[in-house]
Design a protein that fits this description.
This protein has 284 residues and is of the alpha/beta class. It has helices spanning 54-67, 87-93, 104-112, 116-125, 195-209, 230-249, 254-264, 271-280, and strands at residues 6-11, 15-16, 30-31, 35-40, 44-48, 70-75, 98-101, 138-139, 144-147, 150-159, 164-170, 175-184, 215-221. It contains eight helices and 13 strands.
Length: 284
């Protein structure tokens, strides 16, 4: 049995994407910086989420190899492609690892990202950068995973940024890998959100808070974010969702929403996320 577990985080940073209609190309459009988290004992480990592009997967695999740890599983928090399309190079490097999710709905939503229509959409943003046949997670056989005598708990939480959200709870460290339930100093993906979906997201944040974590590793984190303090991360995520809903309610155009949110959150990363969210609230 390992004396204790450790947590290490890989952040892929931002990557360019086409801005599309309405975007001011004088500022590069980007995809939000994403994380993969390695939860380790002395030798064995679990990797949480596996990024998006093939090159990110290769960098991630090399990083895991450099730690000297052996991932026995890659856990996918939710069925968005930017959390598992990059798993191939890691699975190639560690053929004994299983790609898994703890809820059948996550498996189904992940599989939905690999349809020809969905792949065409992702390739329109990341042409030539994606696996042609991304691996899809299988359903885990248990809601618990033993890492050298220490339990990790897989939990289904609820709605967040458009699909079902699950987490990895590490009780020994009072830590949670939250996927996209919480964000850390990045504009949140509120594209096509509604008052009901935003309320569901707030309820998911409350469910995470009820576990009393000290640390939260978010699926999207600005590389310059000051820490992973759970109270700060949960509070800022809750406040951002509430501010967005209130701003949309009193605005009549997307630019009004964008300007108001930038005034409140001038230092947050990935303004393209806010742009997409704002324009989705005022369909033509």
């Amino acid at each position: 049995m390992a004396d204790s577990l450790s947590i290490d985080v890989f952040n892929c940073g931002y990557k360019p994407i086409p801005g599309g209609p309405g975007w001011d190309d004088s500022t590069p459009a980007t995809w939000p910086a994403s994380t993969s988290t390695l939860i380790s004992g002395d030798r064995d480990a679990v990797l949480v989420d596996a990024l998006l592009t093939t090159s990110e997967g290769q960098r991630l695999a090399a990083w895991v190899q450099s730690t000297g740890k052996r991932p026995r599983a890659i856990f996918v928090t939710h069925g968005h492609a930017d959390h598992f399309f990059g798993a191939g190079p890691v699975l190639d490097a560690f053929p004994g690892a299983q790609l898994m999710a703890c809820d059948q709905q996550v498996v189904d939503e992940a599989r939905g990202q690999t349809t020809p229509k969905a792949m065409a959409s992702w390739n329109s943003r990341f042409a030539g950068q994606l696996s042609e046949a991304p691996a899809v997670p299988a359903l885990a056989s248990s809601q618990e995973f033993d890492v050298e005598g220490h339990l990790l708990l897989f939990r289904t939480v609820g709605g967040a940024d458009g699909v079902l959200a699950t987490i990895v709870h590490v009780p020994d460290l009072q830590a949670i890998c939250s996927g996209d339930i919480a964000y850390n100093n990045i504009h949140m993906w509120l594209w096509n959100s509604t008052p009901d979906s935003r309320q569901a997201w707030l309820s998911s944040l409350d469910a995470v808070a009820a576990l009393n974590p000290a640390m939260i590793i978010t699926g999207h984190k600005d590389p310059g974010a000051p820490d992973d303090d759970a109270t700060r991360v949960l509070d800022q995520s809750r406040r951002y969702i509430e501010d967005f809903g209130q701003t949309v309610a009193k605005s009549s155009t997307p630019p009004e929403v964008i300007d108001a949110m930038l005034a409140k959150y001038p230092a947050y990363g990935n303004r393209y996320t806010l742009f997409a969210a704002a324009f989705s609230q005022f369909p033509p």
